Amino acid sequence: MLLMAFLAMTGLTACSDDDEPKDSVKEIRMQVSAETGVMYAWPDDKKEHPIECMLVESEDFPGETLPLGFNEIDGFTYERGHEYYLSVKRTILSNPPADASGRIYSLIRILQDRLVTEPEVPVDKEIKSEEDIEYYDLCPFEKYSIDKEFVVNEDGKIFYGDGSSLPSYDAARIWLEDILDKGDPNWVKFESVPYMAIYSFVLSPFSDNIRLVRNESYGPMFKNVVPEDEFTRITQSMNSGEEARYALILANVYKKGLQKVKFTIKKH
Q1: CB 32 within 8 A of CB 56
Q2: Cα separation of 235 and 194, whole Å?
Q3: Which of 2, 214, 248, 251 could disulfide-pair with 200, CB 3.0 to 4.6 Å?
Q4: Nearest Cα to 87, choosing from 26, 33, 27, 25?
Q5: CATH 2.60.40 domain range(s) in the chain
């Protein structure tokens, strides 16, 4: 009798173990865009703090482009400007945490890594003047702000107008600050990917050509907006107090204009 009871209990335990939900694991293909987008942390239900992220398409959601954090594919390091085709192991957790995704990705192998080149001067044969730049829906608007004045000396050191210094010419950045009023009726719309300043059209006082540069995460690099020959001209040929007036037409992922911002570079 005791033996039968033991066997019955063992059988019940085995059935219980078999009935436990298990993680679902599958190898899938994933396309990672050369462009980046924005996403929001789980607690940020008001979408007040956009986070730059990858844009991916996968077999799980064919035809949809979805945001994915830069560190969400274990073993994979994303490099901006590269387009990837990946083989990844996708695990759907049977008991996902309440404050995180129920899907885990790990890299199996990179099937393709393609560098997407950026357009050079001129941007397009049709864009010969500011009037040729097409603006996106509901634009121009006032979303971004930059420092209005930079000061340089003959040694090539760069300062803000208030006297605080920037990094070296090679490392300095023109920071884009998001100043959009949260009371704006289109605030949520304007914080979406099509209204993110991914590129800048550069209008230089020293050239009639319009260049297109990438803004990266927080704004374009100073050296990309002010190329070395122009920087040398400002530091070596301009007199003290003279100004060079630049303008940037910020553009989205489709290279459509969003707004125009201006700044000056003054010779110390």
Answers
A1: yes
A2: 37
A3: 248
A4: 27
A5: 130-267
Task: State the Cα–Cα distance between residues 268 and 159, nearest whole angstrom.
Answer: 10
Beta carbons within 8 Å of 198's beta carbon, 6+ residues apart? 35, 36, 214, 215, 251, 252, 253
Most confident of 55-59, 160-164, 264-268: 264-268
Q: Is cis: bond before 194, omega within 30 of 0?
A: no
Q: Which of 150, 143, 148, 147 is nearest to 257 (CA)?
A: 143
Contact, 36 vs 51, CB < 8 A? no
* Tokens describing residue 195: 């209204």
Domain 130-267 has CATH 3.30.450: no
Residue 254 pLDDT grade (very low, low, confident, very high; cuts 50, 70, 90): confident
Mind listing the pLDDT tens digit for each residue in 185-228?
Answer: 988 888 877 888 989 999 999 999 999 998 866 789 999 999 99
CB under 8 Å to 219, separation ≥6 — which residues? 146, 173, 174, 175, 176, 197
Strand order in the sheet with 199-203: 158-160, 149-152, 257-267, 243-251, 199-203, 211-214
Scanning the chain, the segments in alpha helix (DSSP H) are 2-19, 187-190, 222-225, 228-237
Nearest to 105 by CA among 91, 86, 93: 91
